[in-house]
Amino acid sequence: MIKYLVCKNGFYEAEKYSSKAWVCVMLPTPEEQTFLTEEFGVPEAFLKDIEDNEERPRVEYEDGWRLIVLRVPYKSLEQENLYSTVPLGILTSGEKFITVCHSEVEMMEDFIKYTRRKNFEEKHAADLILHLQLSATVWFMKYLKMINYEIKDAEEQLQSSVRNEELLELMRLEKTLVYFITSIRGNEILLQKFHSILKQRHMKYDADLFEDVEIEMQQARTTANVYSEVLAGMMDAFAAVVSNNLNVVMKRLTSISIILMLPTLIASYYGMNLERGTTIYNPGFYVVIGATLLLSIFIVFIFRKMKWF
After folding, report:
1. CA 11 from centroid of its chain's CA atoms
2. What pTM was computed for the model?
3. Which residues contact 81 (CB under 8 A, 6 or more apart)?
4. In whole angstroms, what is the distance from residue 39 CA to residue 32 CA?
5. Are strands 2-7 and 11-14 parallel, antiparallel or unpaired?
6. What are the tens digits of pLDDT across the range 52-95?
7. How far apart are CA 221 and CA 140, in angstroms?
8. According to the model, what pLDDT value does residue 80 have?
9. Which helix (H) or strand (E) holds 297?
């Protein structure tokens, strides 16, 4: 889907393309990619690079076009890999400004609404790129908070669990944090390279905005690293907890087996050796039953003293 966004105290959708409009492309079809190539002259190789979900953050030039690949957070509907990162391509050439993403990321719609709330004024392409990088970092922080809540939920479940599902959930979250850390680090390197290009070409940009983006990225990376280290330690600790819980269950089952074994042994011995048989009219039957119950209660008392129950 292609949107033409014009800045009028915030970005608003226009019906047709005009000068200095932002062409926002989400989930492009092959026909729309062909349209970008033929109508705007976007290099086909750039569009193919953006389509690669594993594309790393970088800056590249070709035929008067500049391609900036930024890794942005993405929330998937798949439970197996709920949080991940995807490439967002930013293409600029003169007054042309185009963004292409092959996933429906929340940050794009949120950024557009943000510009309207803040009465966003028309910016240079460099400042708009910095704003998009800042928005991506903010969404990294939002998803990191959600991941932290999921870690706490898994922690509560693990305290009384002997199953592997909770540990597998923590492994999934750890994998997500690794993706986040790698992507944020790649975006940091991209930011520094972009800053170097702006200085070399003496291009105008908002220095305060650049500093804000740099600080937010550092904070996001630090937060992700802390969560990853805490999660790794938690997984080791709870692996031991799960093993200990299993030992407790086995200990209780063994205790029950011992308690049941003694009455069974006495009953078997009594049934084989009593001269008058096992009829209930025999007083010896009740004596043996009573002694068996007392012995079982005594064993339970001992086990409770030993904290086996």
Report:
1. 30
2. 0.73
3. 172, 175, 176
4. 10
5. antiparallel
6. 888 888 888 888 888 889 999 988 776 556 788 899 999 888 88
7. 9
8. 58
9. helix 283-305
